[in-house]
Write a structure and sequence with these properties.
The chain is α/β, with parallel strands linked by helices and about 260 residues long. The protein is about 35% helix and about 25% strand. The strands form two sheets. It has a seven-stranded parallel β-sheet, sandwiched between helices. The longest helix has 17 residues. The protein is elongated.
Length: about 260
């Protein structure tokens, strides 16, 4: 499968390039960076630490999308929406690990999925997606007498909060409770907020250092506490999950899929 990496010079883009190089059945078909990037014209293999492979990074998205079967995208929401439009025009696979979308941007992705095969997830790792499935089940079993709090920590450069993974876990908890996350989420706490409301799903976001990703779902009841934890120490787990998603999506009809579909969860 001929796959290109969007945002090829970034930390995640480099990890995606290495994952493609390591995966049988995949071909690194190109890399994209924004206009003016110092990476333009550099060999994508050299940028990723693989050595020269003869494929220069480009800023010509239209030309790139015209000759690939899929793209891996961990860029920024505004860019991802534009790339999704190009994927729809080319009718190719688009794997999205970008987070922090607005409702309007999510609607644009839904529209693109009428013609592109899109796999979108707040986290591409197998462990986190299993954690989400467990979160839904535990929330359903324990019931509203257990308070739910979601903790996440990432490196100092992460822009959005709560993380896409934290929101994915929150959605899983809300589904387990048969409620809408938008009605129950508490994303900030400051000053005198009064006692905790029953049924709320709280979020806490920390940023610092080079933390790849840590997530914890806490179910706090009277006299006991139950926790689910996932700690990522290598971006490679997200990259390998994204490549797996692209291979899974090849040949499938247009639509918006999740990693739960890829993993059979």
């Amino acid at each position: 499968m001929r796959i290109a990496v969007l945002g090829a010079a970034g930390r995640m883009g480099q990890a995606l390039t290495r994952a493609l190089h390591e995966t049988p059945g995949c071909e690194i078909a190109g890399g994209l960076e924004h206009e003016g990037s110092p990476a333009i014209g550099r060999d994508i293999g050299e940028v990723a630490g693989l050595g020269t492979i003869g494929i220069p990074i480009t800023d010509d998205a239209h030309a790139l999308f015209a000759h690939v079967e899929g793209v891996l995208d961990f860029t920024l929401p505004k860019a991802t929406v534009r790339f999704a439009e190009l994927s729809a025009q080319a009718r190719i696979v688009h794997v999205i690990g970008t987070t922090g979308f607005t409702d309007e941007q999510l609607a644009a992705l839904d529209a693109a999925a009428r013609h592109a095969t899109i796999v979108k997830a707040g986290n591409m790792s197998m462990g986190v997606n299993l954690m989400a499935a467990l979160t839904k089940r535990v929330a359903e079993i324990l019931g509203p007498e257990f308070d739910i709090e979601i903790f996440e920590m990432h490196h100092r450069h992460k822009r959005d909060a709560p993380s896409g993974t934290a929101l994915m876990l929150g959605e899983a908890a809300a589904k387990g409770r048969a409620v809408a996350l938008a009605e129950k989420a508490v994303r900030t706490r400051d000053g005198d907020m009064g006692p905790r409301r029953g049924g709320d799903i709280g979020f806490a976001a920390l940023r610092g250092g080079d933390v790849v990703g840590e997530h914890r779902v806490i179910f706090a009841g009277a006299g006991e506490r139950f926790e689910l934890t996932h700690i990522a120490s290598d971006r490679g787990i997200f990259a390998r999950g994204a490549v797996r998603a692209a291979l899974w999506a090849k040949g499938r009809p247009p639509g918006l899929y999740a990693m739960a579909d890829v993993l059979g969860l």
